[in-house]
Amino acid sequence: MKIGKCPVCGKPVYESPKSFSCVGWKDKSCDFTIWKQVSGHELDQGDAELLCQIRRSRKKTDYNKRTKRYEEWRYEVGDDNKIHRVILEEFVYGANGKELVK
Ligand SMILES: [Zn+2]
Q1: Tens-of-pLDDT digits for all 102 residues of the chain?
Q2: CA distance 96 to 77
Q3: Alpha helix (H) ranges present in the chain?
Q4: Which of 9, 15, 33, 57 is the most interior residue, by most CB within 10 Å?
């Protein structure tokens, strides 16, 4: 199923079992691929559609057990045309509520 236009070359991007990929891979003209797992996080079709349209997904919030911090983050298409998980803010909940961590 087509989910959008490739942000690199403009050709259609189709869903496959493990990824959303530009049709350009067939003739090796473009290797843009959005894997459904990025840094251990699931990436769904809504994320992939936004990455094709505006090169970034909606913001998400997760708790990181290792750092004991909450992370606000999103997926972005980087300058290298690969998908990155970008942390926008890290915070904790203290006595005064949400506190940003530098
Ligand atoms: Zn492409």
Answers
A1: 999 999 999 999 999 999 999 999 999 999 999 999 988 889 999 999 999 999 999 999 999 999 999 999 999 999 999 999 999 999 999 988 999 997
A2: 35
A3: 45-54
A4: 57
The number of residues in the chain equals 102
Count of CB atoms situated within 10 Å of the CB of 24:
19
Report the separation in Å between the CA atom of 12 and the middle of ligand 1, taken as the mean of its atom positions: 7
Ligand 1 is an ion; its neighbours by CB within 5 Å are: 6, 8-9, 11, 22, 24, 30, 32
**Domain coverage including residue 52:** 2-101
* The total number of structural domains that make up the chain: 1
3-state secondary structure of 50: helix
